[in-house]
Design goal:
mainly alpha, 5 helices
């Protein structure tokens, strides 16, 4: 017997899930945006703390101020990785897209922070910062989407409460 559409007529007619009501869809979108804002906020806070620690080390070692952007860009990538991971972890799907969104949100936050602090044009550093945050966020999202849930001693999956 061959397997084709004649044997499975239901496949052509399609058993699709019923669409969610509008109220539920808006609620899901609002929750997604809140999770995006929260992950970008945590990433921005981590970036600010890492940058402050690095600036203190640079001051202690009497390094030139021009070196700080070259240290800050990898720190932004680390913070974007964390933001992408935090954003995608509850979903465990669409890691690349959600990670890119969280990296872009972190990029906007870092640009606003840089505009308030320095009041100087960023130029090439802004493009490098964009690439670093997008790549870091995407990597964090992919990592979180592909991570397996933690196992307990009994071999059962742990439940969040």
């Amino acid at each position: 017997m061959t397997w084709n559409s004649e044997n499975f007529p239901a496949r052509e007619s399609g058993f699709k899930k019923p669409a969610k009501p509008e109220k539920e869809r808006k609620k899901d979108q609002k929750a997604l945006l809140m999770r995006l804002a929260a992950s970008a906020g945590v990433g921005l806070a981590v970036f600010a703390l890492l940058l402050l620690a690095t600036a203190a080390v640079c001051l202690r070692l009497d390094l030139a101020r021009e070196h700080l952007p070259w240290v800050g860009i990898p720190l932004a990538a680390v913070a974007a990785f964390l933001a992408g991971d935090l954003h995608v972890r509850p979903l465990r799907k669409q890691g690349l897209l959600s990670g890119l969104l969280s990296g872009a949100a972190l990029y906007v936050g870092v640009l606003l922070l840089a505009a308030v602090i320095s009041r100087a044009p960023l130029g090439v550093n802004a493009v490098l910062l964009l690439l670093a945050t997008l790549l870091g966020g995407a990597a964090g999202g992919i990592f979180a989407a592909n991570r397996r849930p933690a196992q307990t001693r009994g071999g059962k999956k742990s439940r969040r409460r």
